[in-house]
Amino acid sequence: MIDNQIQMAPLISPEQTMEIVLQAINELVSYELAVVLSLESEKTLKVRKAIGPLYTPELNDYKLSLERHKDIARIMEEGEVYVFEDDVEHGEVHLDTYESVMELPAGHSCLVAPLNIDNNKLGILTLDHRACDMFTPQVVQITKTLSKLITLALAHSMNADTLLKERDALIFERNSLLDELKTGETNLVGNSPLWLDVLNKTKLIAPTDLPVMISGETGTGKEQIARAIHFLSPRSKRPFVALNCSALASGIAESELFGHEKGAFTGAVSQRKGRFELADSGTLFLDEIGDLPLDIQPKLLRALQEGTFERVGGEYQVNADVRIICATHIDLKKAVEEGRFREDLYYRLNVFPMHLPPLRERGDDLVLLANYFLKQILKKSGSRKLKFSAEAINCILNHSWPGNVRELQNTLERASVLAVDGIIQCTHFGYDASTTESGQKLLSSSDCNRKLLILDEAIKRHIREALDACGGKIYGDDGAAKILGLKPTTLQSKMKKLGITYK
Fold it and tell me: Which of 46, 147, 246, 385 is the most exposed place for a label (fewest CB within 10 A)?
């Protein structure tokens, strides 16, 4: 009987590959320590793999400064295997590669092999032995050949790290998007002048890397604008990571922002990346930045200024290229005056301020948003039919909506459940049917119909003004549809419905 099962070869990680090659080198070259370091930045190397009798756990994630070890920087630039020979008589002494981790005897053998692919510098391989004169020209040639295998494994390891970083960030972004879909806030609906000004500023600032400070009342759509800025920016294919600062206790804020090392504190059972690291090359959205604990603010300022930070319990710096977008519903200037927010951090973040208007100031956007959310509710409910009564529209227009767009959406969700006959009434909103929250008397049914007629007239006048400004042109960048933020076909449909003709 033929066995149809296919035997799969076991997967080997890049680190295992490096270890196998290093062990193979040891069969030909006697060494006591072999270390592979990757080029993490223009001036920094980091240990990726270390084996041999002299190995110590302190080598794990050890970082080497190329500014301090200029001889190694020169070897990497020249691209040739090099054996160090101290010339004490002429004062030429090699600075030990791992001076802060271990102490090797004077005159010990030390070899450095650059790891390059097509003139791209990836890192170095170092071999050390406590005895002198261990690395002959033959050894140099062998190492030069076998180091090519190490280079391939290192390239694989570095690519794997990049993919893991992207995966972690995408998981965060996916979860954020799922939360967003649950709330239904996926579009920036509105045609009021105040809201169109916000959208224009969003398009203007998006292509830059400048920090953005979004202010506005709770529920006005600050995170939605932040997402729009990100997705319209050159970083759109990179992570968008959000963090609500009001939910951070002082004890965990630093870990949430910058991550922590294993054993950094009770409960830190493994290394964890912070939001700053997850947002590398993308956008970090800090919601309610005014609630960020005061003791964390200087650390955030340093990370913004230098692009580096340390995980909690870590000894080495982590690099991250992050665009910052912040949001707040409080007066940060007042917080600075009261000593609750650092002035230098405020000016660092408040480079491009944007203010989102409350819903009560957006005029006809109330009806547009109400209809938009009703359509979203209908999509979820399937075949069920829903519509607003005239009194319901009146109630929506007269309510102050202190919770803004979020309150409107939640109110309509509740009303759709209560409207068993498919007609949403004012009473379904949970407000007094006769008055608004401000105590204003609601209009009667006939008054409401009259108000809707007045609204239609206002829309007609608005469309006519746009047509006049464009000389009657509807299509194109200089057409009325563009000015009104509508599709040309939508504008034509509205004109037909409202009986607008233009010659």
Answer: 385
For residue 176, what pLDDT is reported? 52
Contact call for residues 173 and 236 (beta carbons, < 8 A): no
The Cα–Cα gap between 258 and 98 comes to 27
pLDDT lower than 50: segments of the chain? 1-10, 87-91, 175, 177-186, 433-453
Whole-model pTM: value is 0.54
Residue holding tokens 């109400």?
Answer: 370
What is the Cα gyration radius of the chain?
Answer: 32
Q: Is residue 106 packed enough to be buried (19+ CB in 10 Å), middle (13-18) or exposed (0-12)?
A: exposed
Whose structure tokens read 């509807």?
474
d(CA 203, CA 225): 10
Q: Does residue 271 contact residue 259 with C-beta atoms inside 8 Å?
A: yes
- Eight-class DSSP state of 131: S
Question: How many other β-carbons are positioned within 10 Å of the β-carbon of residue 119?
Answer: 6
For residue 435, the cross-strand partners are 441
* Gap between the Cα atoms of 249 and 188, Å rounded: 32
N- to C-terminal Cα distance for the chain? 85
